[in-house]
Amino acid sequence: MTTQLQAPSFTDPAPAPRLERAADALTAHGFTVEILDDATAARARIDDLIPGDASVFTGASETLRLSGIDEDINASGRYHTVKTRAQAMDRTADRREIWRLIASSDVIVGSVHAVTETGSLVIASASGSQLPGYAGAAARAIWIVGAQKVVPDLSTALRRVEEHCLPLESARAQAAYGQPSAINRLLILNAEPEPGRGIVLLLREAIGF
């Protein structure tokens, strides 16, 4: 008799015990983790985590867009936003300077494509613009993560990226830019060696891809 293993859901919010396992593992690996009820709570918490005079870059993220956090940061006038400054620069002539600004911001805010119950964060990118800041170049990194992104282990995380996130992001990119997305660069964060730098706001609700 063959037992069929149930495929993991990549859309259902993980229950409380799994969220807590992920939070405990991330904490053991040096990340600062807060479990919050929803995106509204994360939106309010961001105000406390970003100094008013900070330079801030927001990585491309449906979580940030849907929660209103992207607009809060880039349109509020409270911060020195890298996107606002970059929009006034020549994307060809000033390309290296734009990338330097993105990588070395005081704070980078974004999301991840998966977080494992063993304490790793997984982020895929077509351009890679947000990855240097996430990896350590930014003084502080903040990730807002929906509960549906919690998976048991790294192999499942990579499946989530390829089978779930990529088709959705490709459809979005096709509509927005006229071309599909791709997993050109992949970042796996297994630990945060600098205390207090990497902050994960883990939500009890599902949001984003």
Number of strands: 10
Distance between the termini: 36 Å
Main sheet record: 6 strands, parallel
The side-by-side strand order for the widest beta sheet comes to 1-10-7-4-2-3
Q: Which structural class should the secondary elements be placed in?
A: alpha/beta
Bin the helical content.
25-40%
| N-to-C order of helices and strands | HEHEHHEHHEEEHEEHEE
> Helix count, per DSSP?
8
- Low-pLDDT windows of residues: 1-6
Average pLDDT confidence is 93
- Backbone CA Rg: 17 Å
Strand content: 15-25%
Shape, principal axes of CA atoms: globular
Q: What order do the helices and strands come in, and which of them pair?
A:
Blueprint lengths: L15 H13 L3 E5 L2 H11 L5 E4 L3 H6 L1 H7 L4 E2 H6 L7 H9 L3 E4 L3 E3 L4 E5 L5 H7 L2 E6 L4 E2 L2 H24 L7 E5 L8 E6 L6
Parallel strand pairs: 1-10, 2-3, 2-4, 4-7, 5-8, 7-10
Antiparallel strand pairs: 5-6, 6-9
Q: Your description of this structure?
A:
By secondary structure, the protein is of the alpha/beta class. 40% of the residues lie in helices and 20% in strands. The chain is built from 8 helices and 10 strands. It has a 6-stranded parallel β-sheet with strand order 1-10-7-4-2-3, with helices on both faces. The radius of gyration is 17 Å and the shape is globular. It starts with 15 loop residues before the first helix and ends in a 6-residue tail after the last strand.
Record keyword descriptors for this entry.
8 helices, alpha/beta, 10 strands, 20% strand, 209 residues
